[in-house]
Design brief:
Blueprint lengths: L3 H29 L16 E7 L6 H9 L7 E7 L6 H11 L3 E5 L9 H10 L6 E5 L9 H7 L8 E3 L9 H22 L10 E5 H6 L9
Parallel strand pairs: 1-2, 1-4, 2-3
Antiparallel strand pairs: 4-6, 5-6
Helix pairs in contact: 1-6
Length: about 230
């Protein structure tokens, strides 16, 4: 029994690094071979899109977020719905000024809480009632997107069975700690992406998410989900 214990510990010490290295080799291969979609898989018209942006005290970020969204390159019909969740800073004023220049931005004041709702969930549930678009895309107010973001997300819905899509995000930072957090976030996103593309989805990122309106309604929306 005493001789078996050191042997077991030795095997464990050898197995853990091997498993760690093996996982990262698999991860690298999975990401290297991931499919890249260059064009749509269907000739159907581009679906209509509403971009939902929940915002609470986001005066520092909301203008940059909306400016990146306004640079969207999408040939289908699209608009932006900003839910101002009782902000006490200049979030509402900033968005209101942009609505005067851009007709595809709508500011919706969130002043009530639906039964069983709270926070971002409450905002998204109410924004969903203000659109009849085919697809709803969600992005946080402190995020910026590429001009191709909407078209890239929409392509994932070419398969009729797809009801919800979530994509990776990248964190930016200036300090050493922020850069380490950004690196950790990239590592997590890479792992989630590789697992999902091998048929093992483990999570969905809420600040880069989209759903088909018919699927959302069939589930009863956020109101059907406990907080």
């Amino acid at each position: 029994m005493t001789d078996a214990l050191p042997l077991a510990l030795t095997l464990l010490v050898l197995a853990l690094p091997a498993a760690y290295v093996g996982y990262h080799v698999w991860l690298a291969m999975a990401l290297w071979r991931r499919p890249i979609v260059h064009k749509r898989n269907t000739a159907a018209p581009w679906p209509s899109v509403s971009i939902l942006v929940p915002a609470r005290n986001e005066a520092e970020h909301i203008a940059n977020c909306l400016k990146s969204l306004l640079a969207t390159q999408y040939t289908g019909q699209w608009n932006i719905l900003v839910g101002n969740d009782r902000s006490v800073d200049a979030t509402g004023e900033i968005v209101s000024q942009l609505t005067q220049k851009h007709s595809n931005i709508e500011l919706i004041s969130i002043s009530t809480t639906l039964p069983g709702m709270a926070g971002k969930q409450n905002v998204l549930a109410q924004l969903a009632h203000h659109t009849d678009a085919d697809l709803c895309l969600v992005v946080d107010a402190d995020c910026r997107v590429a001009p191709s973001w909407v078209a890239s997300v929409v392509q994932a819905f070419d398969t009729p069975e797809v009801g919800l899509v979530s994509g990776p995000t990248v964190v930016e930072g200036d300090t050493a700690l922020e850069k380490l957090q950004a690196l950790d976030w990239r590592y997590g996103m890479g792992s989630f992406q590789a697992l999902a593309e091998r048929g093992l989805p483990v999570t969905a990122v809420g600040n880069n998410m989209a759903w088909r309106r018919t699927a959302y309604q069939a589930l009863g929306g956020y109101e059907a989900l406990p907080f």
